């Protein structure tokens, strides 16, 4: 089985973090978000990976080709969208490379599932498309899905207004697809899976199935989401799929610290994430924060609910804006 990771998003809501770094390369704990997708696929035994890119494509291309050099995958095939073609339109560019049933996953979200049950459903039902579902509290920014007792999709609803949703199960952006479905995607016009292709297939009576999966899923489209995902995983409120290990150490008070970071013994961490190469000085107090790669929290500095971007420094007399800090976990 092959897989395609969609990695063409612009991540505009994450600015300034994504102004010079493509969203799939934003780090979550010890690795870029796209590497969490890779870990999930490798766990499922998939090592032929396609990547669709657009924004800052050269950076994504260099990073994913490193997977081959490190022996993580057998093959990486990269395509570049010169103009936005939509989620399905981007996959259409892969048509000559795709040979068999394939997995599609969004490289813009933190996705860590055990996909084996979805593969079994797809094969057993002889589906055209099988979709992963995830339950959320607020469905207003997502497409929701309704299935019959056997898991066959019977209707979609795109971004329902509060109180109008018929379900809290959303399309999690992970699909198993038969290669002949690619024939239904137009060559030249933009086409989106959830808005265009899947509703068209449903109307035509094609076999679309869906099921909820074990693991975790986060939309990391905002600074607050980026922070919340890591803090909730570190505190045990949610879990990466079994078998995926972070190269770091869990420390007291529901915080996580990378092994290559440095936290002074007199510093206080609470519900915070310290990325590789970051440091926290003596007597600093860090609560509900993300201190990203190479960032520094100087001694005697107290911060709460912030993201300190890569390479930035915040000191005891700095305001968050002076240090380039971003409102994170406590933002609303």
Account of the 3D structure:
With 332 residues, the chain is of the alpha/beta class. The chain folds into two domains: 2-218, Alpha-Beta Complex (Spore Coat Polysaccharide Biosynthesis Protein SpsA, Chain A); 247-327, Hexapeptide repeat proteins (UDP N-Acetylglucosamine Acyltransferase, domain 1). It has six helices and 26 strands. The strands form seven sheets. The chain has a seven-stranded mixed beta sheet, with helices on both faces. A six-stranded mixed beta sheet has the order 14-15-18-21-24-26. Helix 2 links the parallel strand 4 (48-53) and strand 5. The chain is globular.
What are its keywords?
globular, seven-stranded mixed beta sheet, Spore Coat Polysaccharide Biosynthesis Protein SpsA, Chain A, 6 helices, 332 residues, UDP N-Acetylglucosamine Acyltransferase, domain 1, six-stranded mixed beta sheet
Describe the SSE topology:
Blueprint: E1 2-7, E2 27-28, E3 31-32, H1 33-43, E4 48-53, H2 57-69, E5 75-80, H3 86-92, E6 102-106, E7 110-113, H4 116-125, E8 129-135, E9 143-147, E10 153-158, E11 169-177, H5 193-203, E12 208-212, E13 215-218, H6 223-234, E14 248-251, E15 255-258, E16 262-263, E17 268-270, E18 273-274, E19 279-280, E20 285-287, E21 290-291, E22 296-297, E23 302-304, E24 306-308, E25 313-314, E26 326-327
Parallel strand pairs: 1-4, 1-6, 4-5, 8-12, 15-18, 16-19, 17-20, 18-21, 19-22, 20-23, 21-24, 22-25
Antiparallel strand pairs: 2-3, 6-11, 7-13, 8-11, 9-10, 14-15, 24-26
């Amino acid at each position: 089985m092959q897989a395609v990771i969609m990695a063409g998003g612009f991540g505009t809501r994450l600015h300034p973090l994504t102004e010079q770094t493509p969203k799939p390369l934003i780090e979550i704990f010890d690795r870029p978000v796209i590497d969490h997708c890779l870990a999930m696929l490798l766990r499922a035994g998939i090592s032929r990976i396609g990547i669709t890119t657009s924004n800052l494509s050269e950076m994504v291309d260099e990073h994913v080709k490193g997977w081959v050099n490190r022996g993580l995958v057998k093959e990486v095939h990269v395509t570049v969208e010169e103009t936005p073609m939509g989620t399905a339109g981007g996959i259409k560019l892969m048509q000559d490379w795709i040979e068999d049933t394939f997995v599609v996953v969004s490289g813009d979200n933190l996705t860590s599932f055990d996909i084996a049950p979805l593969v079994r459903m797809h094969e057993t039902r002889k589906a055209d498309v099988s979709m992963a579902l995830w339950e959320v509290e607020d469905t207003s920014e997502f497409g929701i899905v309704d299935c019959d007792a056997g898991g066959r999709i019977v209707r979609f609803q795109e971004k329902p207004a509060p109180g109008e949703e018929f379900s809290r199960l959303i399309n999690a952006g992970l699909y198993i697809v038969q290669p002949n479905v690619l024939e239904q995607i137009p060559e030249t016009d933009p086409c989106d899976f959830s808005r265009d292709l899947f509703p068209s297939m449903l109307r035509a009576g094609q076999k679309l199935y869906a099921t909820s999966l074990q693991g975790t899923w986060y939309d990391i489209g905002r600074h607050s989401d980026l922070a919340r995902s890591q803090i909730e995983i570190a505190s045990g409120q949610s879990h990466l799929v079994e078998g995926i290990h972070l190269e770091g150490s869990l420390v007291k008070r529901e915080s996580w610290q990378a092994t290559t970071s440095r936290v002074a013994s007199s510093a206080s961490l609470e519900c915070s994430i310290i990325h590789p190469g970051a440091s926290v000085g003596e007597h600093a107090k860090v609560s509900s924060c993300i201190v990203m790669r190479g960032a520094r929290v100087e001694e005697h500095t107290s911060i709460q609910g912030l993201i300190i971007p890569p390479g930035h420094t915040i000191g005891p007399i700095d305001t968050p804006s002076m240090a380039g800090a971003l409102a994170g976990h406590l933002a609303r």
